[in-house]
Amino acid sequence: MRVMHHRAVGLGYIAISVVAVLLGTVLSLLMRLHLSWPAWKLPLHGLILPEEYLALVTMHGTIMLFFVLTVAPQSGFGNLILPAQIGSRKMAFPRLNAASMYLTAVALAVLVAAFFVPQGAPISGWTAYPPLSASPLAGPGQGDGMDVWLAAIVMFAVASTASGINTLTTIVKLRAEGMTWERLPLTVWGWFTAALLSVLAFSVLMAAIVMLLCDRHLHTGFFLPAQDLINGVMLGHTGDSSPLLWLHLFWFFGHPEVYIAILPGMGLTSMVLANFARRKVFAYRLMIATTLLIGFLGILVWGHHMFVAGLNPFAGSAFAISTMAIALPASAKVLSWLATVWRSRPQLTTPMLFALGFVSLFVAGGLTGPILAQPILDEYLHNTFFVVAHFHLIMAMAGIFGLCCATYYWFPLIFRRQLSEPLGKVHFGLTIFGAYSTFLPMHLTGLAGEPRQYAQLNGIAGPGTALLQTTTPLQLHITFSALFLACAQLPFLYNVLRTALLPPTAVENPWNATTMEWAPNALEETSPEPLMAYRGPCQYSDDAATFIAQWQPDEASTPHLE
Amino acid sequence: MLNAQAIVSGQQFWHLPRNASLHGRSLDQHLLLNLWIALALLTLAHFILLVGLAVRRRAHRPIHKLTLEYLPLAALTVLFAFLAIRAQRLWAAQRYTGADLAAMQVEVTGMQFAWYFRYPGKDATFGQTKLALADAPAGNPLGIDPKDSYGTDDIVSSQLVLPANREVDLTLRAQDVIHGFAVPEMRLKQNAVPGQTAHIHFTPTTPGTYAILCTQLCGLGHYRMQATMLVLPPEKFAAWLATREAQAGAR
Amino acid sequence: MAPTITPPEIDRRRPPGDIRENDNGSGRRPPTDKRTGGNGEGDNWNDRPQGRRGPRERLSQVRVGVFFGLFAVLMFFIAIVSAFFVTKSNGHFDAYSRYINDWLPTAIPSILWLNTAVLIVSSASAELARRSMFQEQDVMDEWLGLGRPTSRRATLWLSITLALGIVFLSGQVVAWKQLAAQQRYRGNPSSHFFYLITYAHAAHLLIGVGALVAALVGLHRSRRMLTRQILVDATVWYWHAMGVLWLLLFALLEFGQ
Ligand code: HEA
Ligand code: HEA
Ligand code: CUA
Ligand SMILES: [Cu+2]
Fold first, then answer.
1. Where are the domains of chain A?
2. All domains of chain C, ordered by start, with CATH?
3. Dihedral over alpha carbons A453, A457, A460, A462 (to 10 degrees)
4. Could you say which of B178, B213, B223 has the minimum Cβ distance to residue A243?
5. Distance from C-alpha of C239 to C-alpha of C250, rounded to nearest angstrom
6. Is the pTM of this model over 0.90?
7. Would you say A7 and A79 are in contact if contact means Cβ atoms under 8 Å apart?
8. Which of A66, A305, A377 to mutate to test the pocket of ligand 2 (most atoms within 8 A of CB)?
9. What residues does B119 pair with on adjacent strands?
10. Quick check: A454 and B194 CB within 8 A?
11. How far is the CA of B88 from the centre of ligand 4 (A)?
12. What sections of C90-110 are H helices per DSSP?
């Protein structure tokens, strides 16, 4: 049996996420169009009904968060780059690796199938709070659609756990000679921590889903109160529990999940900034420590999604403190990024621009985190567009910038062709402008009181309309900006397609990078020469003129003992 | 309705709706403080980033870790701790203790997709409800048990009518799925979870009409699960209550 | 100006001719480094090129993988057990404002004690199988192709484990039937948890049974000694973990209700 090479698996994952990102973007644009023009008829479909809007929200969130931002950075680029970066030529368990990739693809197909079952896709958001998610009575899409959705998430969780085990074993066991833990590039630390979180968190999600499925089909009441009357029908279950139990289990998974999405991007940003600033990453060991610390604290903060959900107010205070604490390692990272580029006269190549954009978006989105982490303020801001703004800046946009950075940076490595720099810069300029233009105003509409997951923001009789009408112009602006933002990806698409059709050029290490994946023989599948790491990454001379890569033995220079 | 103080503090700039509750003032102040600090840090970080990129002379390493990493980090720690403690005080004041004993009692029940408000009536005691008896078309959406004498004088309204300047103790319930009870102008939000009750107390200060929104996704009608909160001057409220009580007595 | 470089660990390691550290002058030990890795200072097999990290390189990789997998399984059960405790302490107010907690501790069918004993014995036989795969003398023989002494012995022990595993699972089925016959616990949250926990554990054990079968087939079919060792070793570690997990879960069900 021929085993699939890890780079083929990685490309498979990237293909999955490209399909997913296209789909997720289309869904988000439909949402925006409906919000601004509720009477707009989708060609071939007609009006977007309220339940259809909620199905769009649910599927957009699920697809983007799971199948784009978990798949592409962690599994996609993880498989493409990670082995080479630690000086290995394979992943620890190649068969398991390929199986995870195929299972992920199947999961995406199953998820999309939810649109086509009777009554359509589920409408309970990506968080699927019961009892809404526990009974088909609760609304259209909560029957078959919900079951399909749950099945897809279970498959995805199994695949992600397996892929996490694979990543962890690879990093622990397959590092090349000389590749000590401290010499690992920060990207590897990002992948490592994210994989740890995957193994930890996805199991909990699976346990919760198993229990939810029991509630749905076996009349148990793991997440249901003693009596529940939905739509005039008393649920025929036995048991006496609380929907809050689901919230705890879900967010115990959910918060680490969002860090899984961003940690690889953080690591990449550190390395790319250092590479183009021709400097060592500022406070390298501290960056390793903060990566792990963010992962660890990320396990302890889940209650910040539940401040007003019925959590004990004392517990709210405790979660507020652990959440505020996470701002510190995050700030340490921001400071290191700033210090690394400070007066370094960096080369502003496209990957560098996207890394800088990542820093900018991470700060912009991150600073609203501590605001939401204060229960008294979350009491006002919870489930408003302020939260939507927070997570689109820090997760969606920063995450996508990480992906773009990775694509521009590693394209020459994988395809032996370089993407056009001018086009890349245009892409960067339009995207960062579009990102801020779309998601900054959302803070204001949220502060004005606008709730999320509303199929229609005004036009309902009562004082609500008077309150929410004030934001109509901003909403219109957001919609136009979102269209602009999506169109801003066209130069990127064109760039990739055009370059892929060009003949390969022999660009070896075009960025003068120092990490192992750029070693001349790193990507060869079999080579008699083992890879060896002679030093940590980012070794540049003070004047930025020369550098020594991790794979270069150093007869030339006089070694100093540290 | 441009309020001078609101402009100075940035309420207009940040699009905050007016505030009509007692605790909302300090909440707003704290929120605005947070927002300005976040904006300042955002600007500062971008300033440092851009200046660092713009300066043409390359700085020499080593730069000191202490000054660049640990001192700013310490400053940020102090800043975040300050904000957290300030927020914690407000949170404790609002949530750690229950409502005043003299507070007005109203029960709020959410169901797909409506809010009902129940006043205990003359006897100041809520009657028992049984979920199995709930039947909105028959005029008993909450399932008030007709056998319970406390329940006969209960007033059920689809509008939350409150007197100004008196503390209110809301008991939140839900019949089917989780709903979110939110009144932006009262700076109030708390979920109503089926199977349990939640209490929240506040004091409306300004008479007027306010929007009650559902802020927890609860199904296809989530967006239209809105109700009205009517805050009346005390005399007018007394008159309203008297008519409703008379109606309930006549039943 | 030349960049400052930390010399790599490879170079900091003793050059081969340097015998200072090893030679204690007694003349009894040869002046070569025979330490076999582990965490000996300055010599760690992980610092050697891949594929040259000792005869059990692949085995230790698989062990690490199994370890992380078991961590995931553990988290799955931790989630369910925390839900168990939360639900146990959960109550609600009824229509008369009385606090109701209708958790009715499920009386555990006593056959579970027997099942537990069976599982412990099965773990012991599994361990015998695992040990027999690593008996040096026989391994050497087998490796050289002089018969298959270790595999034969391991096959025997693994078959016993497999049989005991099936006995355990059948015992669980009996327990479920017994419990289902007791109307009293119908639909009580505690029995829901009983079923959930025992079914989830049985499902995981069934994976172990599959692994046992795979290991038995592998012992027959596989040509490489290392592959056979890996199959048995990984299966047995998984089996042990499921045994220990069962002890914890059983203690919870028996005493924690
Ligand atoms: C990764 C996550 C992600 C991403 C990228 C996005 C992208 C976008 N989102 Fe999404 N969104 C969520 C995650 C994300 N969202 C989640 C979790 C929710 C909550 C769901 C819920 O409530 O349950 C949500 C909800 C949500 C809402 C709230 C709906 C409501 O509550 O009523 C809105 C409304 O405007 C919205 C809009 C948009 C828009 C306009 C974009 C645009 O930015 C889209 C434009 C697309 C791009 C800019 C991507 C281009 C990508 C590339 C070029 C990279 C390709 C490279 C590789 C794959 C290698 N989103
Ligand atoms: C990648 C994803 C990601 C990341 C990294 C974060 C990071 C953080 N998040 Fe966010 N969050 C989400 C994704 C993410 N979040 C999502 C998806 C939701 C909504 C889920 C849903 O309901 O659907 C959410 C919701 C959410 C809530 C709940 C809101 C609500 O529902 O009411 C809260 C509350 O505490 C919160 C807090 C935080 C905090 C404190 C951080 C911190 O980690 C942030 C740390 C960063 C900083 C603090 C910035 C550091 C920079 C500086 C300090 C500048 C330094 C300045 C100079 C040098 C001058 N988040
Ligand atoms: Cu009720 Cu949303
Ligand atoms: Cu969170």
1. 12-225+237-557
2. 55-255 (1.20.120.80)
3. 100
4. B178
5. 16
6. yes
7. yes
8. A305
9. B155
10. no
11. 19
12. none
CATH 3.30.420.40 holds for A12-225+237-557: no
pLDDT band at A245 (very low <50, low <70, confident <90, very high): very high
Q: A 112-141 residues with CB below 8 A of B?
A: 123-125, 129-132, 138-140
Cβ contact (<8 Å) for A451 and B182? yes
What the block records as the tokens of A534 is 């002679």
Per-residue model confidence as pLDDT tens digits over B105-145: 999 999 998 999 999 988 888 888 888 888 888 888 888 88
pLDDT digit string, tens, across residues A65-82? 999 999 999 999 999 999
Which atom from ligand 3 is nearest to the alpha carbon of A453?
2
Q: According to the model, what pLDDT value does residue C216 have?
A: 93
pLDDT band at B63 (very low <50, low <70, confident <90, very high): low
Tens-digit pLDDT profile for residues A165-184: 999 999 999 888 888 888 99
Short-list A234, A227, A225, C97, CA closest to B127: C97
* Alpha helices (runs of H) in C182-224, residue ranges in sequence order: 189-221
Whether ipTM > 0.90 holds is yes
The answer to whether A161 contacts chain C (CB < 8 Å) is yes
Size of interface A-C (CB pairs under 8 A): 168
Query: Do C126 and C157 contact (CB within 8 A), yes or no?
Result: yes
Chain B contact for C99 (CB, 8 A cutoff): no
Name which of C85, C70, C76 is nearest A204 in CA terms: C76
**What's the gap in Å between A385 CA and the centre of ligand 1?**
13
Q: Chain-wide mean pLDDT for chain B? A: 89
CATH code assigned to B104-249:
2.60.40.420
Cβ of A155 closer than 6 Å to ligand 1, yes or no, is no
Per-residue confidence band for A551, with pLDDT thresholds at 50, 70 and 90? confident
3-state secondary structure of A137: helix
First to last CA, chain A: 49
Backbone angles phi, psi at C93, to 5 degrees: -95, 130
Residue B191: φ, ψ to 5°: -80, 145
Closest residue of chain A to C44, computed from CA coordinates:
A177
- With a 6 A CB cut-off, is A188 part of the ligand 1 pocket? no
The verdict on a CB contact (< 8 Å) between C95 and B195 is no
pLDDT tens digit sequence for C56-94? 788 889 999 999 999 999 999 999 999 998 888 876 666
Interface-testing mutation among B61, B105, B128, with chain C (most C C-beta atoms within 10 A)? B128
Whether residue A316 contacts residue B98, with contact meaning beta carbons closer than 8 Å, is answered with: no
Contact assessment for residue B234 and residue B205, using Cβ atoms and an 8 Å cutoff = no
Neighbours of chain A (3+ CB pairs under 8 A): B, C
- How confident is the model over A428-474, as pLDDT tens digits? 999 999 999 999 999 999 999 999 999 988 878 888 888 888 889 99
Strand partners of residue A547:
A540
Q: How confident is the model at residue A529 (pLDDT cuts 50, 70, 90)?
A: confident
Q: Using an 8 Å CB-CB cutoff, list chain C residues near B130.
A: 95
- The full set of domain ranges for chain B reads 4-95, 104-249
